[in-house]
Amino acid sequence: MFTKNHTIGDVLDHPLGHDLIRRILIFTGGQHRWLANPLARRIPLSWIPRLSLGKADGEFIEALLQLLNSHPEIPPEPKGPLRPAWWKEAVFYQIYPRSFKDSDGDGVGDLRGVLEQLDYLQDLGVDAIWLSPVYDSPMEDNGYDIRNYRQIHEDFGTMSDFEALLDEVHLRGMRLIMDLVVNHTSDEHPWFQAALKDPASPYRDYYFFRSEPNNWTSYFGDRAWSQLSEQGEWVLHLFSPKQMDLNWENPAMRRDIAAMVRSWLDRGIDGFRLDVINYISKVPGLPPGNRTIGDLTGYTGVEHYFYGPRLHEYLHELHEAAFAPACAFSVGETPGIGRQAAKLLTAPARRELDMIFSFDHLENPGKSRFEEYRYDLNELKGHFIEWLEDYDGSWMSLFYENHDNRRMISKVDPDPSVRVVLAKLLGLIQMTLKGTPFLYQGQELGLVDSSFGHWADLRDVESLNLFEQWRGEMGDDAAFQKVLAGSRDHARIPMPWTGGPNGGFSSQEPWIALDERNQSYHAEGQLKDPDSVLSFYRDLIRLRREHAVLRYGDITFTDRTAKNVFCYVRQNGRETLHIQCNLSNQEIPRPQPGEGWVRLAGNYPDLPQTRLRPYEAGIWLES
Ligand code: GLC
User: Fold this and answer.
1) Which of 310, 438, 509, 564 might form a disulfide with 399, Cβ 3.0–4.6 angstroms?
2) What mean pLDDT is predicted for residues 68-92?
3) pLDDT of 130-154, one tens digit each?
4) What distance in Å separates the CA atoms of residue 567 and residue 581, rounded to the nearest whole number?
5) The pTM is what?
6) Distance between alpha carbon 69 and the CA centroid of its chain, in Å?
């Protein structure tokens, strides 16, 4: 049992404690060198309120202790034997169906549109597709608010369109995983409707109805509770008021979810990406959130559900009831989960998840999504080194972009003159590290953030809610700029397929506007250009397929602390590859290639010189 008399060092030696302190440093921008300081390690927790000048109060310490004491598990020792699996060898490609390809001219992408572009994906070398939600939904959150888990939304097509797509994917030797959104349902889901209609309904306990709300806040602005009528009960929603949190304490609800998962696996899909899956276990009684943690993270209450007491149990149960019998693959979306907890969630012997998406690297320490700043790639390097040197036994997902985040090129360096080399540098790193790459649609074209001119051009529920909230505090212009710094709509503009009307995405005006910065980066043009970003991604994926060392080979980092240079070696006893990258927009000295090395790929066309040029990256084969 942890108490206030334990020291910071004791907390750091506990896996979850280690993750929590790392997280606090990420939020505050604190240096992690500090963790190695022996004096800091000896400070008892009871001193923290005084040392932090009251910023972290006694209640904060209590919240920390509660979390540590509710998770006694120690991550398994790394270095189990490496077990091959198809998903460790695959390159995944995420499709956001609304914005991928419209086949029927209503301005919204659909399943037939995806089917039309399967040759494009196969040609690129994609092995598996992750399809964002296509289920029936009122579309409050573009489908992450599901009304009927067993039906396809009419905007996307029909169940037979889905089956045709799945068949065609499999015929091409590719795989398909779907999105599983089971932290919440739409308020229009029949379970919630039944619960509303009849307080005695068994479905009442599928959700969190309470006579008093607590102080938890929602991810889309404002409080996490809505009152059903003026005197009525309150109901919990961590996201929008139309996305009601499911009560996983209820065993019948869990059985219904497992049956639904099995029904999709029976249809032949290959697995799922599990939406905000680490939020499903909430501390019983839903205690109030700590103020300091709320201020630090922006989300009051998060300590009571981001790594809840029964999370591991629920995941193991779902794994055994649905995933294991179908040999299905799972990747959990787990915001706020650090490396040690990640090992517990993905250690093969524990039978919970195959992989997770951690988000620790998507913003630089001390920065948040709605802040405008230049992302420093040296932090990305540090993140990958830290994880990959300590994650053996588990398998890492490698990604920079998805439908919830800005385009990486824009975060790092919006200068158009470096766009292509930077796009290629990012791709080269992603395809040569050890783990499974997940590309987000358009990343392979080098797409950048959109230049939205007016708040009315935005569509995302999060952006619009935050705009409403902030315009009162700071006025329209400042609020719009702040929203733009982190809007999810940047990643949701239509794919530019051609230079024609609507970028070849649709014959009609799309549901969200295309952008001039991206229109000339269309797929048709890049397919014809051997030096395009798209051709480079295709070459990289082919190299990954041809050189087993890029998949299962060991990885060793050299120049670990040197700024702006990222070098590593992949080896498997048969082949040795050296990767050299310049993470800055300045020339830097080139680490000298060895005698007889052959360059397999690089983002500058001409032969290398004595210096690494801005964002230069190359793969060298030692011979
Ligand atoms: C996940 C999804 C995001 C969605 C949220 C609520 O973070 O990726 O798009 O809004 O969960 O379902």
Assistant:
1) 438
2) 85
3) 999 999 999 999 999 999 999 999 9
4) 6
5) 0.97
6) 28
